[in-house]
Amino acid sequence: MPTDSAAAHELAKSYDPKEVESRWTDSWESRGFFRADARSHKPSFTIVLPPPNITGALHMGHALTATIQDIMVRHKRMSGFNALWLPGIDHAGIATQMVVERELKKTEKKSRHDLGREAFVERVWKWKEKTGNRIQFQHRALGASLDWSRERFTMDAGSNRAVNEVFVRLYEEGLLYRAERLINWCPSCQTALSDLEVDHEEGAKGELWSFAYPLADGSGEIVVATTRPETMLGDTAVAVHPDDERYRALVGKNVRHPITGREFAIIADAILVDPEFGTGAVKVTPAHDFNDFAVGQRHSLPLIDVLDPDGRLNENGGPFAGLDRFEARKAVKARLAELGLDRGAQEHVLALGRCQRCATVVEPYLSKQWYVKIEPLAKKAIAAVEDGRTRFVPETWTNTYFAWMRNIHDWCISRQLWWGHQIPAWYVEGASGEIIVARTEQDAYSKARARHGDGVKLVRDEDVLDTWFSSGLWPFSTLGWPEKTDDLATFYPTSVMETGFDIIFFWVARMMMFGLHFMKDVPFRTVYLHAMVRDEKGEKMSKVKGNVIDPLDVTAKYGADAMRFTLASMAAQGRDIKLSLKRIEGYRAFGNKLWNATRFALMNLGDYDHAAAQAAPRSDADRWILARTRTAALEVDRALEEYRFSDYASVVYQFVWGDLCDWYIELSKTALYGEDPKGRAAAQYALVTALDAALRMLHPAMPFITEELWQRLPAALKAAESICIAPFPIAADFPEDEAIEREFKPILSAILALRAFRGESGLPFGTRFTASVVASGPTAEAIRKYRALVEKLTNTDVVFGWEEPVAHAVLPGEGFEIRVALEGLVNLAEERLRTEKDLGRIVAELAGIEARLANSSFVARAPAEIVEKDRARAAELHARRERLGRHLQSLG
RNA sequence: AGGCCCGUAGCUCAGUGGUAGAGCGCUUCCUUGACACGGAAGAGGUCGUUGGUUCGAAACCAAUCGGGCCUACCA
What we know:
By secondary structure, the protein is α/β, with parallel strands linked by helices. The protein folds into five domains: about 30-165 and about 470-530, HUPs (Rossmann fold, 3-Layer(aba) Sandwich); about 190-365, Valyl/Leucyl/Isoleucyl-tRNA synthetase, editing domain (Isoleucyl-tRNA Synthetase, domain 2, Alpha-Beta Complex); about 575-730, Isoleucyl-tRNA Synthetase, Domain 1 (Orthogonal Bundle), CATH 1.10.730.10; about 740-825; about 825-890, Valyl-tRNA synthetase, C-terminal domain (Helix Hairpins).
């Protein structure tokens, strides 16, 4: 590894991320920089990576997640923490099973049933190997400093042990139960879904269709309306509002079902019925509608289940049995119309429930499932956020969390799938059907034998658990729970949970509940929720739309560092990040800038002697850049501590490009190329110090280029073998020097004024002219001291004093004035225009300030320092206005 | 129905009480010994609208318009 500064010659003229980035990941990992120590005495900082689904590859959202987390982890690691970033992947039950089934169908034209459960699950494991490796590869390409020695999977043996343990304990505590109820059923996936797994299609256009039920005594009819006519085959009541005069006489009477001939009652129910809506009479289908189910319980109505698991009508559908529900809908309507009972239709907008995974319309369906009694768990999770043990960033999510937690429903956790953690419940074969819940089959049998003798036979529940059940345990199952491990003692509670706001309920809430219940402490101190990455039009990226930007493609084109920096700089946005490649391109240029700044430094460090350089008396310019470095370190630290990643990015960007490259490198050239060895040494010191600080500050966001460049800095500066473990810069590392920015200001403004004059007068840089400085006191001294520097940066000859009464330009500055003879440079008309423009700006600004100062309540009520600042500024502008006014007159 | 977020330069977005900012794009000039993925100088904004609070509002409050999201059992 080149450490000699002669290495500058090895730096290419421009930065090629591809060449550099491929080298470092292996090097870092092989030296164990990212391996956390369970027995360290250092304070720990822990993040568990939200496990990506094994269904596919990482997308931009994952890249954002990885970037933000890596910034935090690298920052803390460099700041002396025992940093653990724990990777893993999620088995994603339904999603994965679907993907593998689809593939099976495509390649072998087989269904999972053709293979059988065991062979199918085997297939999924194979699939997992492939995609799991790809996800790992992608994270490495992004530069994620994950501790791969601790990598976990939500279906590995450890997770399975944790899942079974949790299931058994919850069951024993009475917080798990099995019940027959209505659930959300996906006829395509053929499994139960939790409320959260149903997406509601906003504003779906439907039809509200009305038909009449004839009264059983033939005395008339009652008209009801429905969006799902086929469910009328399972109706067991018609409900009206008890106070509704129109129907009061009908309550208690029976209607006759026009298709099945069954008779059932007209009931009064104040909760279900809104007399204002439709006809004010509602058909009641307790087996296929959540509200109707509740009505059925209130009024002891029979349940008639008319659907099969695949969405076809069952034998209760009478003549329509065997028809798909949508076919049956048409058929039922046609039949009722034939019977003369059609009472018309109207358009109706509704929120249509669809399966999150396959978009099939979900049916409320009667079945027996496992539930978590969630309220006792939710209570603790609410309290932990109320009393601040866990904090949300941005804070606004706290309300969302509370709203959901306080209105929570029992969680249906069983799924009719093959891929997942099989429920550790067994049923005693025979009439009783007694449930035995145990950690292992062996345990289950010993429990069963104790009660029923040796001959007892058990059948295991076939269902598996909701994926989120196992991911809910993630912050502690990954650390070894239920064993009492060192990892658990050292790293739990974790420091930050950083994830997308879209899974606040699915995941964050569940981890809170399980963590508090089983670990007796919150799973994380802070929840940082980031925005969604969308395409440049603001649309959600999806494979279907084909607008997915693959992070690997971006990385290949612009480099991982540029992509990471872009994501960090956009991380402050509300809910959407519209990612544009132009922006990434801009930050690739930033990498190149940094590369060339280092290249410049190395070209001038061939004879660098750290001790001598450190001791050399610093010029004002040197002091200035060190002061800027201190300020940058301070601001970076604050931004990172407060999770303001975009501020962090912009502070470092401004520091590197603005302060270091645009100013200091230019300023340092006179000293570096000059005759004075001490001046040169001091400039070398300031340059390399600022650069080193910049690299270390930037490392969490741009790990590759910073390591590559940092390795080439003089050995004396480097306290570590890698920038990954070098100390993160803090303000205290740099001298406190509050006066320098003020003292150095005349130099900078003289340069700016001359450049502006040149630009506005259309003088090319090659045209050299004489700038006469009129100044006195310390300002004159300062400019005199830096005469050579000003001359170099503005290509002028700087002289002091002014006597010749020739036509000239006036460039007013704070405490000084520069005059330039116009003869042969600029004609009078042009100069007049330029001056008028300048004067115009001054007059406008002065008018604003004077108006404020003329306002007596401003002077009386605004803080003194604000008023003072305005007065000083007004005086300054006033002087300039006078000066320019006279100047304009002199121009004729 | 309720809740939340967004509306600032042509585009993508920072900025949360004290003289409007960045990146890209645009105009003019520049192969000045790190960098044309560059340098210098510019143009461009009544900060969605209307009220209010305040000495002072892009920022705080209230309405309103536009865009988006989430929760919820209106048949």
